[in-house]
Design brief:
The complex is a heterodimer of chains A (107) and B (414). Chain A is α+β, with helices and mostly antiparallel strands. Chain A has two helices and five strands; from the N terminus they run ββαβαββ. The model of chain A has no long low-confidence stretch (mean pLDDT 93). The chains are: A alpha+beta (107), B alpha/beta (414).
Chain lengths: 107, 414
């Protein structure tokens, strides 16, 4: 199974194996990685599952929808070029080794 | 502090978030979550949407993995609260056990308003609130051919859209003259009416239900108050909810259409808070007592109470926001439409993507965005504290955009 590494704002890291098709958001909630709220449950409604993706891996991700782009304007922490909503990143073999950094706040 | 910690009654979104936020705030005392459902806290919004068709799997419903509760020392007590002994600061549970508290948080939610008409107990008639309800509805949906929905609110119309996608013949009865009247503007209601009609949904506005007909205990038809008879092998009743105030009322707390709380979400007993669907709180702008049924309200109120218990009290003034998904129509609302009397459309209200600016006493109070997430996000920022609000004239000017307005008038450091 592909691996994801979550790096929380304090620097602590958690590496987990995730079934392909599971979103980076869902995987974090299921394993108790702190820092992702996902209040709308992954419906691109709330902008509380914001992550910063390792810059060198950005190009591996599918392009963001206009909806995700719009919601990223509403995230609580700074929006940066590598900002994504983790509910919109579904794991696949090509993303094995993905590293995502969690912002300090989601609300 | 006596060391009894916090007892949270109700394992819905508000109860879960209270416990999670207490730990995030560094609260070190004991936390017990009294939960009368058999499942660990789960999401309800998908139950009237993707869960019904299997698009959202049951695995995706829990708010956190089971291990989260043990790891965070959150004790889940599978029981129900029976009585609050306020003098002793003890909650007596249905099982007879008692839970003493330093602070009690009531997140007791609401229950479905039920229909009291002939044959209301027939098989095939469902309400959608709990996971069990939704499982029952999903089973029916898989075999039904004709669905009648009673009540054109969010839940009823979300179901209608799903049933339509599943190829059912769908009729919706609504007592008022338009869908979602309590929550959205006429302009937006009309857009949804047109959309559902275009997909073949039949509306009966101004019609109530007189009775159900049944054959061998299975619902077979709905008879309306105007005498019309609609064939049905599945009925979803979605006529709103009633807040669960009995526990609080029996304990002598002040209740009305909800458990009354002040700006800090404290009930008439300083050791007891109430939040989420059951809480009747003062609207930060109008001061009118309101009660909101939404994920945002549950989670923001939970965080506020957790912060207060952990030593950082603040009044509640979050901008309410809501969403509904019906087929290809995603509607997001920021603010509340209550008492709004002037409306300005942004974009073509006959299209599938526009927003409505709603004004209360001439001041922007609510923005409804249909398939326009950028407007919604900008609206949440505009409506939050310390912003210059655009006037009606501003919003009506050609080329007005909330995002541009925000960038020009944002008082928060960028």
């Amino acid at each position: 199974m592909p691996k994801i590494t979550y790096i929380v704002a304090s620097g602590a890291t958690t590496e987990i194996d995730v079934a392909s098709g599971t979103s980076v958001m869902r995987a974090a909630l299921q394993t108790g990685v702190p820092g992702i709220l996902a209040e709308c449950g992954g419906n691109t409604m709330c902008a509380t599952c914001h992550v910063y993706v390792e810059e060198s891996q950005l190009s591996l991700l599918s392009t963001m929808t206009a909806e995700e782009d719009a919601l990223l304007d509403g995230v609580a922490a700074d929006r940066r070029p590598n900002s994504r909503l983790s509910c919109q990143i579904n794991m696949s073999p090509v993303l094995d080794g993905l590293r995502v950094y969690l912002p300090e706040r989601q609300t | 502090m006596s060391g009894d910690g916090v007892v949270v009654v109700g394992g819905g979104q508000a109860g879960f978030q209270t416990c999670a936020s207490l730990r995030q705030e560094g609260y070190a005392g004991r936390i017990r979550l009294v939960c009368d459902e058999l499942h660990a806290p789960y999401q309800r919004p998908p139950l009237s949407k993707g869960f019904l068709t299997g698009k959202t799997s049951g695995d995706a419903l829990p708010l956190r993995a089971e291990s989260f509760y043990a790891e965070n020392a959150i004790e889940i007590v599978n029981d129900a609260a029976a009585f609050i002994h306020r003098q002793a600061c003890v909650v007596e549970l249905k099982s007879g056990a008692c839970a003493a508290y330093d602070h009690l948080v009531l997140c007791v939610g609401a229950r479905n308003r039920t229909l009291q008409v002939q044959n209301a107990e027939a098989a095939g008639i469902v309400y959608i609130r709990t996971l069990e309800d939704a499982v029952r509805a999903a089973r029916l949906l898989a075999i039904a051919q004709r669905a009648v929905v009673i009540g054109a609110g969010f839940i009823g119309l979300e179901f209608a859209a799903i049933a339509c996608d599943s190829g059912l013949d769908v009729s919706v009865l609504e007592l008022s003259d338009r869908p979602m009247k309590r929550a959205i503007s006429q302009l937006m209601s009309d857009a949804f009416t047109r959309y559902h009609l275009s997909r073949g949904v039949k509306f009966r506005f101004g019609h109530g239900i007189a009775a159900f007909e049944s054959v061998d205990g299975q619902v077979s038809a709905v008879v309306t108050t105007t005498g019309e008879r609609l064939l049905a092998d599945m009925v979803v009743v979605s006529i709103g909810v009633v807040p669960n105030v009995d526990l609080a009322a029996h304990a002598g707390l002040v209740t009305g259409n909800g458990i009354e709380v002040d700006r800090f979400l404290v009930t008439s007993d300083p050791n007891i808070s109430a939040i989420g669907d059951c809480a009747l709180f003062p609207h930060p702008n109008t001061n009118k007592m309101i009660r909101l049924e939404s994920v945002q309200n549950a989670t923001d109120q939970a965080r506020l109470v957790a912060a207060r218990i952990s030593g950082t009290p603040a009044p509640y003034n979050s901008v309410p926001w809501f969403w509904t998904e019906q087929g290809a129509y995603k509607l997001q609302m920021a603010g509340t439409i209550d008492q709004c009397d002037q409306f300005v459309a942004s974009g073509d209200p006959c299209s599938a993507s526009f927003s409505v600016f709603c004004f209360r006493n001439g001041q922007l109070a609510c923005v409804e965005s249909l398939n326009r997430p950028a407007d919604h996000i900008a609206a949440r920022r505009v409506l939050s504290a310390d912003r210059n609000l655009p006037t009606m004239a501003d919003t009506a000017a050609s080329g007005f955009s909330l995002k541009t307005w925000n960038n020009g008038n944002d008082t928060r450091a960028a």
